[in-house]
Write a structure and sequence with these properties.
The chain is an alpha+beta fold. It is built from 3 helices and 4 strands, in the order H-H-H-E-E-E-E. It has a 4-stranded antiparallel β-sheet, with no helix packed on it.
Length: 99
């Protein structure tokens, strides 16, 4: 039984590698496709500029937008920003704060 499972896993790995090195890597780990220079990582003219734990809106900045901030639209008011909060069990999430 163990030999059959090992042969099956080796067969699946060989099929993935035969499909193409880049495609196989993106199937196994989606983060590698984004790190390979996909269009999602292209610089934009107006964007969220993020440091550890805080993202602010900077017009005319020329830095890359993190993947997690690409779906965020412009802020509703000029004094709004995103901050990273830590929950009671230690999980983190992003929350928009307007002052």
């Amino acid at each position: 039984m163990k030999c059959m499972l090992m042969a099956l896993s080796l067969g699946v790995g060989a099929v993935l590698l035969a499909a193409g090195g880049g495609q196989a890597a993106s199937l196994l780990n989606p983060g590698t496709a984004l790190a390979a220079g996909q269009p999602e990582a292209a610089p934009q003219q107006v964007r969220w500029v993020c440091t550890y734990g805080r993202c602010v809106w900077r017009p005319r900045s020329n830095v890359r937008v993190p993947i997690y901030a690409q779906s965020w639209g412009p802020p509703p008011r000029p004094n709004c920003f995103w901050t990273r909060r830590i929950g009671p069990q230690g999980q983190s999430h992003w929350q928009q704060v307007c002052r």
